[in-house]
């Protein structure tokens, strides 16, 4: 019998005024759906990020692999530093961010209204969904020459590739989000005399917003994965371009640097999206 | 008394291509202005379907429903509905939820500035009528279930509907909160002079609230019996213990058991009774 | 303004020398150089009319010509003279040793063509080896990591492999002079509309050639910067590239009887393409050439 | 007043035996969340598939665009026919299907257990999810040289690229599916004395299965979009390879043919997955 | 009578890092073997928390719960739980759901073939006890809510638990089905001699089923009053109309209103009563 605890609680019982701090019993770490404190979470997340780097560092310094094929983290950091100092890293990063963002925004501009229509009106869904399901399997890379022919070789072409890579999946996800709006919310508006347009703009769109923002966050990741493909087309700057160039000369350290930079930018965007989500839709986070 | 809602030979068939479900067959019912009618019946007997047809959210397959003599052909601002679940807008505050209908075009047409003031005053009045003054700026998720349903009722009442259609509005509330809501809804009914159609599973609730209790039976959904409630117009909680009340409750429950298609549940009870009696 | 596509080949990277030395301005040519990370895409871009001109090889120009796309060769930048090479591992000494070996190369590029020719000259054919299709950079990487026995690549990779000590050249483009001409190819309608600019470009090219010849160090520095390589390494490529001056160009646009002229080598290349089903129908080679600009510049 | 209907229903009222066939009232097509019959759905879906082809055919035959850049549907069909007769279309298709399927299965083999762990145990989630979120932004194309160096140039390399393109997104989706298993189902098993392993295998996995199959269906689409990239690496057969070769020689009709074939294969796989879903989880489809 | 469950100075604090919620404070309760205890109280008073702590699904922050003298440290096969929602496995048939526990290692250890037979016979017996014979091969989604909960109870009973913990098991059922379930659960209680702890919102249900009704109060969650139910051990539906029953129901409801933190709802009622009385 845990006597300390009993005496603790017993002593408070009569007065019932001050509550002693909860005594933490044995906490099983390996529990299904167990809970973690914020601190534990952060420590583990940091560990999860750092451990692979340590493994990499060990592998690179073990001499098991040729330096050309497996640069060490230090090489990569040096490379990033040199890239920053000599080779206009900021320029490359900004143009890539611009391209991805532009392609992404363009895609969202079409996907949101279209997905809204598909999710709202069954005939639109019937007409477009199978077609989109058909197109979503098509590899964006295959469209490069077509894009060049139809769009040209300027910035437009890079944006178009990112658009193609993102758009079709995005529409389908938006439609799904819209379909998940509770029917009761729509019907409540109908009984108050809302017209079609009002229901769409005042209810469906508002109600789907949190899900839509999440969809945008996820598709943003896809947009980034198309960066290298997009910068195949007549680019002479950008992170993807730098990776491609490094590939030609087997500068593995630069390939690593480019990939990691893209991952970092992605991670930051992801967290920004999550932050906006938390701030914009507080009712989803209140218990 | 003036007839507000006329339901004539109403029939409704749901079909998914292969199977047909006859949710309503030959339902006839007249509801007077400022009458409080409650609908009870076993699960699946078409209570919600009938209510939704009056509300214009579903179309009848046969027959007709008229409100003020005009056939129903869709939702209308004269008929407000309150549902059991999820119908508040979580992204709006309590006050914004209540005023939601004022953002709709149909309520903005041809209104004068004094109308606006009246409406604004009405929102405040409803808020305090519902005892929600302190919660005007809260969001629905911050309220208890009972408070949420009060907001939903206030929202439905704002555009001064003639008819209030309620589908198990208190189904998710606990017994205590429910009693409070009963008195509240009766109070509003007397104040606003609406015509109420109220669907519930709870026979006690149906008798306590209704002037008439309409008992429906399933397969096909139809009206089985209509009971006049032998209680004075002004209700209070003690009446629930009166002999008339208890007698009517027993009678209705008995009839629901008889009409319900839930053979197994009924058989079960019979079997248990048989088992326990000799044992 | 004319848009000119180019990709990573020393003879074409040299255009940046012209740009930085101000030769375009000097001759009134309004030129915008468009870099392609992927050479293949630059060919499509020209055919699609998105470029006014592109830097590409003769072999890659024949297929669009066969499709009836109006392209005109206006200038020969260079001939490969050692910059394309069949690189093999240390235990392959003779062609006979290649039998049954895997060779990485970019299919249907000049590398492919070089291998066919090399094998043919040594009494073998493609059937005797196993070809693995990889872009030039990837082919070099595959060779360096020991995944293939040989690779046909061009510089900078030839050099990279030599430095690594993992391989040497068994056959280079030096042995087949004239067969790998690198060109400036223009859209016919751009040529009509911007003839002045193209004339200027040709003049600028002759100055560039002279500059590279006289100051290879400085030239290598400019070019190396473009592809982010150390200048010392880049100097090696210059010697493997036979830059064409005015005389070289006049000769290249000469009659078919000269086996090193464009018309002279065309049938050999076409045969390769036809055999590999990469081209359909016949090409009137002469229609794809426009030596008038080179001659016009020479006349003055 | 609709007298016919009234008389109809009135006549049946007394007998209450035979129900007349429901008279269809005016059906508004353009209704929010309206219902469609199966037939209407199929007709609209077919229309949605056919109309774009008609538009394409019209555009191609209008002469507005050069044939080289915009082949007509007929050209493409002719090309597919010739590809089938002369160029071993079946061989290309089968090797591509093999590669995609292998990469996909490999990805699923790792993603399912890993996602299961992440979705089940919070510490695993804390450690791996941020890392995966970081990696999912990285472009698969950038990994080509690394894959070649580490995996080689055989079939393995193509499969590896498809794996890289699919795996990370898949893990995250699987984890989400697993997290959605109702806690009540897990707790019910716990109170019956189930151990950790039993809960995972008998409850969580079973309960998540329908969602997992859907996730597999969706990620299968992504696997296909990586085909062309995969066949950049040392391929000399396959649909993606054929598209790449066609790109080199501007055989637009063949590019179109390849893209459409991939779309068709995708559409068939998608429908197969849906069929399996309907057959395996009938309780999700019963009303 | 032998004490089955001892709850001693039990305290439970939920924390999310910033906020602490004291769900239970200093709860003391002894439950005898084969006793039927019901827990009632306003929403959020810790009823579910207490039940889950007995079941071992949550850990106490303070104090101790002992079952048969042994401290609870996790779920155990001697304590079965039934929840309101979603706990049946939709991918298994009714029979497979009932037999689910037999697939678990803990129930397979050291059993003889005759045990297996007995267990198999028990599954059939439970199936017919629940009146589900005809539905053995059906899937949960094909059953009504009442039938689903009967399956859940049968499943919980299969491994012969000593203790049955039920958290609003009939909360989602309609009034008619609920009555059937009440008699069923009492019948099983008599048959299986389990010790039952039953959480509910419905005071009538609590009195009808329980031998003792434990009333909890919120903020912090604690035991307020314990009522002995003055009804004979054998219950039947008519007793609900008996004066003792009605008196106790009124008393408990009154006390819940007083202890509930739902000020607004209570004030509301007061206000309404005041308004209507003079009006
Ligand atoms: N959209 C629909 N499609 C097909 N059938 C439906 C639909 N809505 C209801 N039904 C069927 O119509 C019948 C009546 O349903 P309804 O919801 O009106 O019953 P209810 O009396 O409200 O039941 P409950 O008490 O369970 O709410 C049921 O058999 C139901 O399955
Ligand atoms: N997992 C949890 N994390 C944090 N707080 C919790 C958690 N579960 C319950 N609580 C809080 O503990 C208190 C008691 O909750 P509990 O669910 O036990 O109440 P209850 O009496 O069952 O209520 P109800 O009648 O609504 O089911 C409440 O204030 C609730 O918000
Ligand atoms: Mg209903
Ligand atoms: Mg609870």
UniProtKB/TrEMBL annotation, chains A, D:
Record keyword Lyase present: no
Name of one Pfam family that matches: BPD_transp_1
GO BP term, example: alkanesulfonate transmembrane transport
PROSITE patterns (UniProt xref): ABC_TM1
Keyword Nucleotide-binding applies: no
Cellular localization per UniProt: Cell membrane
Matches recorded under InterPro entries: MetI-like (IPR000515), MetI-like_sf (IPR035906)
CDD domains per the UniProt record, alphabetical: TM_PBP2
Keywords: Cell membrane, Membrane, Transmembrane, Transmembrane helix, Transport
GO cellular component, one term: plasma membrane
Residue span(s) of domain ABC transmembrane type-1: 93-273
Topology class, membrane: Multi-pass membrane protein
Transmembrane segments: 41-59, 97-122, 134-153, 159-175, 223-243, 255-276
PANTHER family registered for this protein in UniProt: ABC TRANSPORTER PERMEASE PROTEIN MJ0413-RELATED, ALKANE SULFONATE ABC TRANSPORTER-RELATED, MEMBRANE SUBUNIT
Family to which this protein belongs: Belongs to the binding-protein-dependent transport system permease family.
Name of the protein in question: ABC transporter permease
Organism, scientific name: Sulfuriferula plumbiphila
From TrEMBL, chains B, E:
InterPro entries named in the record: AAA+_ATPase (IPR003593), ABC_transporter-like_ATP-bd (IPR003439), ABC_transporter-like_CS (IPR017871), ABC_transporter_ATP-bind (IPR050166), P-loop_NTPase (IPR027417)
Keyword entries, A-Z: ATP-binding, Cell membrane, Membrane, Nucleotide-binding, Transport
Single GO MF descriptor: ATP binding
Family: Belongs to the ABC transporter superfamily.
Membrane-spanning residues: none
Protein name, UniProt field: ABC transporter ATP-binding protein
Pfam families in the record: ABC_tran
ABC transporter domain location: 5-243
Superkingdom as given in the UniProt entry: Bacteria
């Amino acid at each position: 019998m845990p006597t300390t605890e009993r005496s603790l609680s017993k002593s408070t019982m009569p007065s019932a005024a001050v509550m002693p701090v909860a005594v933490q019993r044995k906490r099983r770490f390996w529990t299904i759906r167990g809970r973690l404190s914020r601190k534990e979470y952060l420590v583990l997340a940091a560990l999860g990020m750092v451990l692979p780097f340590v493994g990499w560092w060990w592998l690179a310094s073990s001499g098991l692999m040729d330096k050309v094929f497996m640069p060490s983290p230090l090489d990569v950091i040096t490379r990033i530093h040199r890239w920053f100092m000599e080779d206009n890293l900021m320029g490359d990063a900004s143009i890539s961010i611009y391209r991805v963002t532009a392609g992404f925004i363009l895609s969202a501009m079409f996907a949101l209204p279209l997905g809204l229509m598909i999710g709202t009106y069954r005939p639109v869904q019937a007409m477009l969904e199978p077609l989109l399901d058909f197109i979503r399997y098509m590899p964006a890379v295959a469209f490069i020459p077509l894009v060049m022919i139809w769009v040209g070789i300027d910035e437009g072409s890079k944006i178009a590739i990112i658009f193609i890579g993102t758009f079709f999946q995005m529409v389908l996800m938006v439609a799904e989000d819209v379909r998940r709006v509770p029917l009761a919310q729509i019907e409540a508006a109908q009984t108050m005399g809302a017209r079609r347009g009002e229901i769409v703009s005042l209810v469906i769109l508002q109600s789907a917003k949190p899900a839509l923002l999440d969809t945008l966050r996820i598709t943003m990741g896809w947009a980034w994965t198309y960066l290298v493909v997009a910068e195949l087309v007549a680019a002479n700057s950008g992170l993807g371009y730098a990776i491609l160039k490094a590939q030609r000369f087997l500068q593995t350290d630069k390939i690593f640097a480019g990939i990691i930079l893209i991952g970092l930018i992605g991670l930051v965007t992801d967290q920004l999206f999550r932050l906006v989500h938390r701030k914009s839709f507080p009712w989803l986070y209140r218990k | 008394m003036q007839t507000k809602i006329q339901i004539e030979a109403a029939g409704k068939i749901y079909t998914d291509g292969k199977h047909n479900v006859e949710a309503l067959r030959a339902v006839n019912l007249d509801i007077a202005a400022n009458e409080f009618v409650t609908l009870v019946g076993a699960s699946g007997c078409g209570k919600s379907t009938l209510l939704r047809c009056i509300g214009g959210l579903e179309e009848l397959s046969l027959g007709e429903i008229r409100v003020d003599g005009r056939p129903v052909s869709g939702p209308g601002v004269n008929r407000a509905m309150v549902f059991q679940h999820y119908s508040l807008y979580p992204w709006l505050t309590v006050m914004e939820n209540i005023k939601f209908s004022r953002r709709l075009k149909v309520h903005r047409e041809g209104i004068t500035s004094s109308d606006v003031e009246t409406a604004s005053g009405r929102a405040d009045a409803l808020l305090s009528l519902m005892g929600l003054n302190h919660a005007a700026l809260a969001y629905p998720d911050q309220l208890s279930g009972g408070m949420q349903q009060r907001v939903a009722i206030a929202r439905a009442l704002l555009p001064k509907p003639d008819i209030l259609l309620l589908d198990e509005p208190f189904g998710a509330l606990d017994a205590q909160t429910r009693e409070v809501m009963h008195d509240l809804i009766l109070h509003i009914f007397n104040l606003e002079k609406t015509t109420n159609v109220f669907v519930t599973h709870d026979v006690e609730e149906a008798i306590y609230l209704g002037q008439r209790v309409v008992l429906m039976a399933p397969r096909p959904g139809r009206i089985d019996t209509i009971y006049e409630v032998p209680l004075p117009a002004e209700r209070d909680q003690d009446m629930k213990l009166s002999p008339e009340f208890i007698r009517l409750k027993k009678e209705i429950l008995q009839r629901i058991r008889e009409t319900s298609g839930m053979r197994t549940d009924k058989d079960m009870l019979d079997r248990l009774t048989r088992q326990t009696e000799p044992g | 303004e004319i848009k000119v596509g180019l990709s990573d080949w020393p003879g074409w990277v040299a255009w940046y020398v012209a740009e930085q030395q101000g030769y375009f301005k000097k001759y009134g040519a309004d030129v915008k150089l468009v870099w392609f990370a992927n050479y293949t895409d630059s060919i499509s871009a020209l055919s699609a009319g998105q470029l006014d001109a592109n830097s590409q090889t003769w072999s890659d120009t024949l297929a669009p010509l066969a499709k009836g796309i109006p392209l005109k060769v206006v200038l020969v930048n260079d001939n490969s003279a050692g910059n394309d090479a069949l690189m093999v591992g240390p235990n392959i000494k003779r062609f006979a040793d290649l039998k049954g070996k895997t060779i990485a190369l970019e299919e249907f590029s000049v590398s492919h063509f070089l291998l066919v020719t090399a094998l043919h000259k040594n009494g073998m054919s493609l059937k005797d080896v196993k070809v693995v299709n990889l872009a030039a950079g990837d082919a070099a990487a595959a060779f360096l990591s020991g995944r293939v026995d040989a690779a046909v690549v061009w510089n900078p990779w030839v050099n990279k492999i030599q430095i690594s000590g993992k391989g040497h050249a068994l056959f280079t483009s030096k042995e087949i002079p004239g067969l790998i001409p690198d060109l400036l190819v223009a859209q016919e309608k751009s040529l009509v509309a911007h003839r002045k600019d193209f004339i200027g470009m040709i003049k600028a090219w002759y100055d560039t050639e002279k500059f590279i010849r006289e100051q290879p160090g400085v030239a290598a520095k400019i070019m190396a910067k473009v592809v982010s390589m150390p200048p010392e390494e880049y100097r090696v490529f210059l010697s493997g590239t036979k830059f064409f001056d005015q005389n070289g160009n006049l000769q290249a646009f000469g009659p078919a009887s000269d086996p090193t002229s464009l018309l002279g080598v065309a049938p050999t290349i076409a045969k390769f393409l036809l055999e590999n089903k990469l081209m359909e129908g016949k090409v009137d080679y002469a229609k794809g050439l426009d030596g008038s600009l080179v001659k016009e510049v020479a006349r003055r």
